[in-house]
């Protein structure tokens, strides 16, 4: 843990900024932890990306993050939303980075600023503005002076803005860490020597920004001093930083997974996620960040490609709309509170781990004052009994028990004592709103300009769509061919072959992989005329013809009669009233094909309900949390529209009368399109013996109790069954008395409340309730 020369210089630097501001917070690190004002800290962080929600949602999201036990919020910085046109900046509305950081600050949380500015993030072009792609001589993410100059220019702009507002901890602000580049170690080998030079340049450029807090580089095992390399993944317990002076940090613990068009809904169980976190802290970790804590929505054209859906829910602890994803949220909250209560021991204690075999281990953190214990069982099928200092502890398969005093188990990752909330969609409850919306329509104007082949740009080649523009998914490629009478093809039966139209998501560039930025969007070609005459085939390649390019637009008048359905390239418009109340609003797109949707002029993203998720892969049985997770495990939604509902933030619909406009590409029928709200429908409580069971309908009264039993209950939320034994008192009556008509209630899972049970001794008893909101 010795200080290197540079490290010493770094501390001096922080010291000098200390003199400038009396509020300065000193952030540094040793091999054990990030230190804040000299104290080693346990940092529990969560990713919330500001453009994936709205300014109006931020305070509530961050408040819930704090209540969920986080002390840090992390975000990327999205270059292409801030500099959509070179040197023209946008920091307004949902792009107001400074306001977002100040919202974090006002809740008293720390912030981690991952500037990138390459961010991946399933974001359009990985966060790179498309104009960058078109700069002469540029090569992205490598030692290329054109690129490095632009990257430095943007990074400096962000750092200067943040400094001006005094938001780095060294200035008294909330930002304790910053990141340069992103997961470059995953792709560096394909850039050869230039990749290494670029990585080192990134580090030096970052250091030269003088921000007074440490920089991190995630997934970069050769991160140069003093950059801290950090881990991203489903599990990071096996991770070791690349030098002993760096703490063990996990910048992306994937709470779930993103969704693809045509793909299934991934779910990561609360038990497995809690297990991965507890393992990380059992094995010496001190900083961990949930990716994502709130996933949110890919509004407009921000979804990366190919095939990332508009919803970026991620099965995160806060759902797409900002509601609690229970039991994940509550189960992790309890874990965070336990871990934070052990902060001093975890950051100062001597760590001793005893391997008991069969993947079972006991870890003791000991300081002179206290000892804290983790009992880990990484065996995916066999439960264990750990005997420790004369007592027996039951540690289920694939779980970790935490004993802050090495005596009393206060938490086990597999024992969920939090309610499950089943969210439901309710139809628009607005007053006087008839069930069906009235639609007007107009066709995409394909006649005059388009059919005459007039474009904005001409080139004698097939262009990458990024070359033209990044303001629309749609681009007309137009050319004309004159076939003279004496042309051999003239007498042939002519057809056109277009290579590349299979990629229907033109306009949704990739965001990940080596040289991902060079993969074309649009029609890559070749485009050929094929002339057939009997056995004779003549091919005329049109790829290097003169092509005219035009971004789509429309001019036709709106009409109300004879609503066309199932027609390509059709615009639809309707007005609607905002649903009453404050519950999140979604629009149900059932019946539509594929296209884009706007509410009061703001794009709510791409829709594609006609793309069904594949038929198989879903299991009827409850997901087994045991065993290594990946995103193909615990999937749902087989055979259903990949994404049927689309988030309409409340702030998009402030008016009495609001407008919805759809551009339908494939053909659809808007008759069934309607607005709904999202709220808990049923909630299922679960509490192991001696714990309190808390039930809440998040602001609504509990209206009925469908099931209740204290014993060895079977089944899952929605299909509970009594076990072989239970307590003597009538549990339904007890629950009704405690909960009906209330917005929340609490009851203890004990023999005292539910009456002595006829369970054999040794039975694990739990109180299980299903309530209706
Ligand atoms: C970015 O480049 C512009 C010129 O294109 C220059 O005026 C500006 O000062 C640069 N900004 C920074 C922070 O280097
Ligand atoms: C898990 O436990 C079972 C039963 O004791 C044992 O057969 C198996 O090898 C263990 N698995 C691992 C990965 O240790
Ligand atoms: C921790 O380890 C150090 C070095 O081995 C030892 O001197 C110290 O006594 C230990 N402290 C405790 C509480 O075990
Ligand atoms: C802990 O106890 C050991 C042995 O008694 C002692 O040498 C050491 O200084 C103590 N450490 C602290 C931090 O009090
Ligand atoms: C739709 O049009 C009909 C006939 O003009 C009208 O009665 C109805 O109120 C309209 N519905 C809405 C939602 O505007
Ligand atoms: C021209 O080609 C089309 C499509 O292959 C075929 O259906 C048609 O019969 C052909 N006509 C002649 C005259 O060969
Ligand atoms: C058609 O496109 C695919 C994928 O872009 C490419 O691999 C293939 O070589 C192309 N075919 C021709 C004939 O160029
Ligand atoms: C416990 O009591 C319940 C209800 O009285 C009964 O159905 C069940 O069979 C009993 N179980 C045992 C193990 O005695
Ligand atoms: C560091 C780490 O845990 N990486 C894992 C991330 O997730 C992928 C996909 O499951 C694994 O292959 C990596 O090992």
From TrEMBL:
EC code: 3.2.1.23
Top-level lineage group: Eukaryota
InterPro entries reported for this sequence: BetaGal_gal-bd, Galactose-bd-like_sf, GH, GHD, Gly_Hdrlase_35_cat, Glyco_hydro_35_CS, Glycoside_Hdrlase_35, Lectin_gal-bd_dom
Keywords (A to Z) from UniProt: Apoplast, Glycoprotein, Glycosidase, Hydrolase, Secreted, Signal
GO annotation, cellular component aspect: apoplast
Keyword Nucleus belongs to the record: no
Molecular function terms from GO: beta-galactosidase activity; carbohydrate binding
Catalytic activity of the protein: Hydrolysis of terminal non-reducing beta-D-galactose residues in beta-D-galactosides
Cell compartment(s), UniProt: Secreted, Extracellular space, Apoplast
Every SUEL-type lectin domain range: 687-773
Signal peptide (from-to): 1-24
Enzyme category, top tier: hydrolase
One GO biological process term: carbohydrate metabolic process
UniProt xrefs under PROSITE patterns: GLYCOSYL_HYDROL_F35, SUEL_LECTIN
PANTHER family documented for this protein: BETA-GALACTOSIDASE RELATED
Protein family membership: Belongs to the glycosyl hydrolase 35 family.
Protein name: Beta-galactosidase
Organism: Camellia sinensis
